[in-house]
Amino acid sequence: MTIANWPESERPREKLLTRGPASLSDAELLAIFLRTGIPGKSAVDLARDLLLQFSNLRTLIDSSQSELCAIRGLGTSKYVQLKASLELGRRYLEQTLKRDNPLNSPEMTRHFLMSRLRAYPYEVFACLFLDNRHRVIAFEELFTGTIDGASVHPREVVRRSLAHNAAAVIFAHNHPSGIAEPSQADKHITRRLTEALGLIDIRVLDHFVIGDGDSVSFAERGLL
Fold first, then answer.
1. More confident residue, 94 or 60
2. What is the average per-residue pLDDT within 87-110?
3. How far is CA 185 from CA 61, 120, 148, 152, 181, in A?
4. pTM here?
5. Once rounded to an integer, what is the mean pLDDT over residues 4-14?
6. 3-class SS of residue 195
7. Residue 27 neighbours by CB distance under 10 Å
8. CA 178 – CA 167 distance, rounded (Å)
9. Which CATH number among 3.40.140.10, 3.40.50.2300, 3.50.50.60, 3.50.30.40 corresponds to the domain 102-221?
């Protein structure tokens, strides 16, 4: 049975319009993106098969072009659309953070940082630069490293903070291992950066460690 023959209240698009996007399952949301199925399978059936094959939505979205295009019913066009949709979501979060309102949503900050950093196979150290009302001035990925760690230079962090005329900063870096627990090296560099920035009256508000679907906040842990 095709989706067109389903009860109207159960069709993914109609369900989204009447109940909102949060009411849809991963497979139903993916089916809307796919638009059509393949002979013998509806778009929802195809979406369920994809989620089973890739284990979850995250793995599917992070898949390479060759992996995705090898699936029957998909191709370069769908790959491009998927990556474009993902980038739209990231930019939406970034622009939401850069509105005129002060940054007062730790969860929005967490989601944005996770969307930007968690997919890297190597460590990336980044910084949100804030003004004196805690409004976002800029986001920069400052340092990259190997899977064993990134070389973070306090002098460069100070230089970029002054260049943005920042009054406060939020740090973030990813753990390619997927485990978000802060290491002793993470704690050490955070102390060094806090001391260096403190000399020029720039506050460190938080440091997020980004794992695979998880994150740890230094501020929430009382590590700052």
1. 60
2. 72
3. 31, 19, 11, 11, 11
4. 0.67
5. 71
6. helix
7. 20
8. 31
9. 3.40.140.10
- Checking DSSP bridges between strand 168-174 and strand 203-210, what pairing results, if any? parallel
- The closest alpha carbon to 41, from 101, 65, 50, belongs to 50
* CA-based nearest residue to 142, from 188, 189, 104: 189
Mean pLDDT of 198-221: 93
Stretch 113-131: mean pLDDT:
89
Structure tokens at 37: 């199925």
Q: What pLDDT, on a 0 to 100 scale, did the predictor assign at position 2?
A: 61
DSSP 64-126: -HHHHHTSTT--HHHHHHHHHHHHHHHHHHHHHHTSSS----HHHHHHHHHHHHTT-SS-EEE
Which residues of the chain does CATH 3.40.140.10 include?
Answer: 102-221
Mean pLDDT, the chain, rounded, equals: 85
Which residues fall within 8 angstroms of residue 67, CB to CB, at 6 or more apart?
none
Report d(CA 38, CA 18) in Å as an integer.
27
Residue 28 buriedness (CB in 10 A; 0-12 / 13-18 / 19+): buried
Angle at CA of residue 172, ends 171 and 178, nearest 5°: 160
CA angle 175, 157, 171 (to 5 degrees): 40
Query: Which has more pLDDT, 102 or 127?
Result: 127
Instruction: Tell me the CB-side half-sphere exposure of residue 131, using CA atoms within 13 A.
Output: 10
Q: Is the pLDDT of residue 100 over 60?
A: no
